[in-house]
């Protein structure tokens, strides 16, 4: 077999390995990034009434952008959290040995170069750079070790994510901004639900999360109240402006019911497995809300 026939096969194997490895890094975060943000891309496409061929291409371009978006986050996050992950998330690639620390650092460098270049190509460079600044603050300058920094990172990250999603397609409208701002405030206030499942590991590395600073019970009560009043805010700012159509009402009821379920869960169902499930429900609520934007922002 000649070198010329071996080389393409080797390249394909290497490319497939990198795609698979990147998925292992990002798979746990797909419901807060790739899926919901791509839904918002689709909402912008429907709003802008793009022709079918252009719409399909734009969805693919957007999905790749958000793959890189979350890949940068997970590489940086897991590089600074290896010891914590041995306790809280032992399935991650740096713990299982599927990636070396050196390999992850090289990949992070490559993504930090490729991501803004790709963002420039899509016309959303400013949002790509905002996300990179947030990532540096979170992982290199201590935001991730303080509860307020962690919540601001998640909240402002929603702006970087959803503003880019819309502008990949068209200019941001006031209605799109209403969605972005509402979800930014919601995520900033309620994102500490993710810290309930990681109390043991966070305590071991002396990270200051809401449950450790204010107490687990107080944090659960705060989140309970937040999820309980959430349906009213979502109805007023996101659903009601779309009109009294049955499908809007149905979505309103579904999102509100899920939020009320979370309000009950965070208080009554405790323990790592229950808290992990609660966080997954928050991710699915976020994705469902942005899927609803496809027909509420037409």
TrEMBL record:
Give the keywords, sorted.
Membrane, Transmembrane, Transmembrane helix, Ubiquinone
| Transmembrane listed as a keyword | yes
What Pfam families does the record point to?
A: UbiA
In what way does this protein cross or attach to the membrane?
Multi-pass membrane protein
> Membrane-spanning residues where?
31-48, 55-71, 109-131, 176-193, 221-240, 246-268
Name where it's found.
Membrane
User: What InterPro entries does the record tag this protein with?
Assistant: Prenyltransferase_related (IPR050475), UbiA_prenyltransferase (IPR000537), UbiA_sf (IPR044878)
* One term of GO molecular function: transferase activity, transferring alkyl or aryl (other than methyl) groups
Kindly state one GO CC term assigned in the UniProt record: membrane
Q: What is this protein called?
A: Ubiquinone biosynthesis protein UbiA
Q: Which organism is it from?
A: Streptomyces roseolilacinus
């Amino acid at each position: 077999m000649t070198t010329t026939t071996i080389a393409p096969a080797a390249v394909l194997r290497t490319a497939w390995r990198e795609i698979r490895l990147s998925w292992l890094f990002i798979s746990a975060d797909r419901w807060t990034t790739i899926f919901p943000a791509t839904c918002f891309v689709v909402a912008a496409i429907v709003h802008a009434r793009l022709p079918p061929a252009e719409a399909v291409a734009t969805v693919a371009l957007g999905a790749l952008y958000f793959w890189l978006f979350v890949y940068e986050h997970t590489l940086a996050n897991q590089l600074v959290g290896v010891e914590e992950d041995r306790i809280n998330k032992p399935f991650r690639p740096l713990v299982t040995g599927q990636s070396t620390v050196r390999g992850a650092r090289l990949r992070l460098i490559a993504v930090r170069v490729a991501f803004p270049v790709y963002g420039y190509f899509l016309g959303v460079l400013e949002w790509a750079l905002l996300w990179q600044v947030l990532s540096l603050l979170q992982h290199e300058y201590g935001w991730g070790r303080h509860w307020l920094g962690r919540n601001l990172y998640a909240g402002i990250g929603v702006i970087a994510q959803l503003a880019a999603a819309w502008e990949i397609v068209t200019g941001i409208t006031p209605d799109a901004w209403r969605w972005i701002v509402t979800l930014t405030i919601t995520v900033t206030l309620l994102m500490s639900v993710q810290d309930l499942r990681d109390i043991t590991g966070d305590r071991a590395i002396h990270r200051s999360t809401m449950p450790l600073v204010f107490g687990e019970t107080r944090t659960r009560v705060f989140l309970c109240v937040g999820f309980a009043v959430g349906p009213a805010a979502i109805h007023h700012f996101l659903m009601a402006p779309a009109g009294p159509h049955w499908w809007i009402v149905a979505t309103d009821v579904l999102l509100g019911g899920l939020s009320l379920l979370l309000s009950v869960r965070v208080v009554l169902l405790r323990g790592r497995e229950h808290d992990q499930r609660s966080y997954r429900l928050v991710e699915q609520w976020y994705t469902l809300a942005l899927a609803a934007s496809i027909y509420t922002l037409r």
